[in-house]
Amino acid sequence: MKKAAIVGAGIGGIAASIRLALKGYEVTVYEANGSFGGKMHEFWLGGYRFDAGPSLFTLPRLVDELFELAGRKPASYFTYTRLNPITHYFWPDGSHLKAYADPERFAREAAQQLGVPEQDVREVLARSRRLYKGTADTFLNKSLHKAGTYLSPDILKALGCLTDLGLTTTMHQANANKFKDPRFVQLLDRFATYNGSDPYQAPGTLNIIPHLEHNIGAFYPKGGMYAIAASLVKLAEELGVEFRYNEPVEQIVTLAGKVMSVKTAQGNHNADVVVSNMDVVPTYRRLLSDHPAPEKTLKQPRSSSALIYYWGIRKQFPELHLHNIFFSGDYREEFEHIFQRKTISLDPTVYVNITSKLEPADAPAGCENWFVMVNVPHHQGQDWQQLIATTRETVLKKLSSMLHTNIKELIDQEQVLDPLQIESRTSSFAGALYGSSSNNMMAAFLRHPNFSSQIEGLYFCGGSVHPGGGVPLCLLSAKIVGQLVPAVTPVEKV
Length: 494
What we know:
Blueprint: E1 3-7, H1 11-22, E2 26-30, E3 42-45, E4 48-51, E5 57-58, H2 61-69, E6 80-82, E7 87-90, E8 96-99, H3 103-114, H4 118-139, H5 147-151, H6 154-161, H7 171-178, H8 182-189, H9 210-216, E9 218-221, H10 226-238, E10 242-244, E11 251-255, E12 258-264, E13 267-270, E14 273-276, H11 280-287, H12 295-298, E15 305-313, E16 323-326, H13 331-339, E17 350-353, E18 368-376, H14 384-403, E19 411-417, H15 419-426, H16 443-446, E20 458-460, H17 471-484, H18 490-493
Parallel strand pairs: 1-2, 1-14, 2-10, 7-16, 14-20
Antiparallel strand pairs: 3-4, 5-9, 6-9, 7-8, 11-12, 12-13, 15-18, 15-19, 16-17, 17-18
Helix pairs in contact: 1-10, 1-17, 3-4, 4-6, 4-9, 7-8
């Protein structure tokens, strides 16, 4: 039987292992850490459970599809509910908005709370839907680096959307041209952070992102985000995939332009196909150090990172829900600090995720588990200990003021995650959460492809390659790899 080796048990690697097992390969996943999930893992802290990484679940169809391909019923492994409302938004002027799942109700809420014309909200969501449906089959669901993509009938739909994609304007400019209320513009600009970008630099193309949340919906997986990875690992193991933990790959071994094996501390393991779910930069620098690297691609500007405070809070806040955003007073200045000054604003936007709102067992009775995140630059030599301490005080002051409660006095448990830890634990280069940023018009085309044009049998998935970072796009990267890797023939299976 032909063998496939996958480097890294992040969500992209797990999904790729399922797809290759279904194509007839004997699949082994090599993971440097002691368990699966990559950034998508969980931990307990003094009676509080936390999802350590991704907290937003969209496009659940991409998870269901993996079970269906294997002939399983998704609900037998994994269940989720649609959120309503999706997010609670708070502004420094005291205004507050609930982003309801139904676009019509969301439009009414925006009109009532912010004075935004309902019709304008409906139009911007309809446009986001139209552009997503017109472009996703070409730009997200397929390789951008294969000629066949541009010969497909889907390209006609994409070409029909080009003039309306906002390629020549920034995301912020497109939103500011449509809406006069700076708060609603800020809400729409926030979607740039979903792939670690700056709305004041990123093209208006990113305005297709709201479609995922406001038209298709945002969801909560029972058991938390970690349940996604856990359920897929269970499926993979049922399909015969072997997971080898605490066994980092040290080298992808090639011969005459073809992959031969992966090398770990336990020896060389033969492989006909190798899929790297590791960030593309360390993949080349460490695992393929004897091969020429695509320097132009590897030197693309990195995305933002995150500074996360995990707080066990000895109180419940009825005004909060699962997803909560406390906006900064000057969004442009905040992004200028991240991408130009390479530091953290003294008035950052703060995201608070509280899974105990939907899973009471995630916190002790009368308490809540707060995942408190600030967007920050990737690591470039900053003094993170100082930034952690300063930002902690800034965040506490901001939340205490906007919630009219002394939050510091309520902290029962605390743990911190910074870009340096993100890099060391997940091999994300410089702690950038999404690989390269999308801060220029051609960024999508400059991402590394899902295959190597130089080494036969070498493929790539995960957030640092096409189509990008975040859970849905990582799953799509695995889907593209599944399309590119040839199936094992019946004779080869024997």
